[in-house]
Amino acid sequence: MTQLTSTLLRSTIALGMLALAACAPAPIYKPSPATVATAPNIVAQSPDRYANADVIWGGTVVQVSNFPDRSEVEIVGYPLDSSQRPKLDNNGGWGRFVAVMPGFVEPFNYPTGALITLSGRITGTRPGNVGQATYVFPTVSVAQSHVWTPAEMEAGKSNVSFGIGVGGVIH
């Protein structure tokens, strides 16, 4: 391989990688100096350590409960990708938490199973149940939230894959 061909090949690969990276959406929430990178299940174990910390968490909506002065959205937390989208490839998630929002939240806008990312402040924990099991839910006072559409979840993901394998058809 000549020097020119090698340089051209490296440049093409670099430009291709840059193009793929440019397709990924930017994060939607900017971390504050008080933002901690921890998971809901860790907060549930050591709530005093994380009191009043800011978080950017996401996951899957379990249910919405409306009260006279607030709404609470129960969420199964999952890690976030570089665009702050929930990554559902983790077995069982990061634990559950309750997102507390002021006023009335329309359950239609936060349907069960919807993927959500939010920014807010940890306000404590509270006991509850998941089925018959007792559970400790971290609570987060929500500053902003975003429910992801299927198109947003796919944006910037490459449909190119590389691999080695053997295939065949059995009749």
TrEMBL record:
Signal peptide per UniProt: 1-26
Matching Pfam families, A to Z?
Slp
| Keyword Lipoprotein carried by entry | yes
Q: Which UniProt keywords apply?
A: Lipoprotein, Signal
Q: Which domain of life is it from?
A: Bacteria
What's the name of the protein? Slp family lipoprotein
- Organism field: Dyella kyungheensis
